[in-house]
C-alpha cells in the first residue's frame, strides 16, 4: 500500500495527471472529514481541501515522498483549517498550535483509519453507502431517516448490513 502510494507520489511529482487524479480520489474525502473536525463547516472545508489539491499540483516538484507525504498532506490541511478559523471567525488557535508531535501522529493514524473505512464504504451498495456517509458526517439515525424518507429501523438495518 505505502509502496504503491510512493509510486503515485513520484509519478505525480513528474507531472503525471493520472497519478495526481488517483491521489485526489484517494485522499479528498478523508482530508475533507479531517478539515471538518476543525472548521465544523463542510463548504469551507471543501474549499480548503480543493485549494490544497490545487497547490499540491502547482508545487508537485517539491513534494516529499514516503511516510512524510501523509504528514505533509494532513498537516497542510490542518494548518489551512486553523487559518480559516483564525481569519474568518477570529477564533483563537493557541491550543491547536501547542499540539505535540505525538498528538499529531495519533490524529494522522486516526485519519488513516477513516481513509480505509471510506474505501470500504465505497464498496457498499448505493443506499447503504449513502447512509454510512451521512452517519460519518455525524447525523443521527432519525435525521438520516427523515432526509432519505425511510424508517429509522431501515437506517439501523442498513448500518448493520454494511458493518
- Average pLDDT metric: 83
* String of helices and strands: HHHHHHHHH
Low-confidence stretches: none
Bulk shape = globular
Q: How much of the sequence is in beta strands?
A: under 5%
Radius of gyration: 17 Å
**Count, helices:** 9
Major sheet, described briefly?
none
Question: How much helix is in the residues?
Answer: over 70%
Q: Output the structural class.
A: mainly alpha
Cα separation of the termini: 23 Å
For the secondary structure, the number of strands is 0
Describe the structure.
It contains 9 helices and no strands. The protein has 163 residues and is mostly helical. Helix 2 packs across helix 4. The protein is globular and about 50 Å long. It starts with a helix and ends with a helix. The relative contact order is 0.10.
Layout of secondary structure:
Elements: H1 2-13, H2 17-39, H3 42-58, H4 67-89, H5 94-97, H6 101-121, H7 126-136, H8 141-148, H9 152-162
Helix pairs in contact: 1-2, 2-3, 2-4, 2-6, 3-4, 7-9, 8-9
Keywords:
163 residues
Concise synopsis of the structure shown:
This protein is mostly helical.
